[in-house]
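Readers outside the structure-tokenisation community will struggle with the description of the input data as it stands. What matters is that the chain and its backbone geometry are given together, residue for residue. For illustration, here is how one protein appears when written out as sequence plus structure tokens:

…
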Amino acid sequence: MPEPTPLEVHKALADDTRYRLYRYLRLSGRPVGVRELSTRLSLHANTLRPHLRRLEEVGLVSSETRKGTGAGRPQTLYSAVGVDDHAGRDYRLLAEILTPLVSGVRRHERAQEMAREWGAYLVARSAPKPAARRAPGPDLAVLQEAMAEAGFDPRFRRRSARTVDITLRACPFRDLQAEHADLICGVHKGLLEGILASSRPALTLTGFEPEPTGACRASAEAERT
């Protein structure tokens, strides 16, 4: 069977159910059975199976059959598989093609605005349900997941109940930073602003310092209640 193209991979993840399946498997970090997936996603097992097959076809999920300790039927377990590096190279080419389209101050501002909207969207996917119990102060678990979804490698240090320092050791756009620093750092900052502003409690980006290595340091403060 020919290797799936990056377009096929991203079309597979465009479906909300498949995205939720892949996200749960990836966050679990272990093989998971259909029964657990059905319970966690509140969907019938028969609904999930064709989606799991599609994720397998595009190489995002692998399966294995394990025999249980009892006399029951063997169980099929599913695990998330990381996307191959070649997909990132395709994104690099796409980014090079699209970068000239957002040249100019007004278009840079629009790109940053769209990055904020995307950051808010990532938080909405990661945020707990309204009824979930939450510790006071910034929810670092939600921030961690949303920033990781955006391609960053975040580290956090609480300075107080309302303030947090953030170190992003990996910039998802570092390959383009040298040639398009203003645009890339603007998008980078917009993503952070969108993620922070949409968290609960809402956070304001109070510091943002890009570094030559492609990493950056940021600080954020929660609104007073």
In short: The chain is about 50% helix and 20% strand.
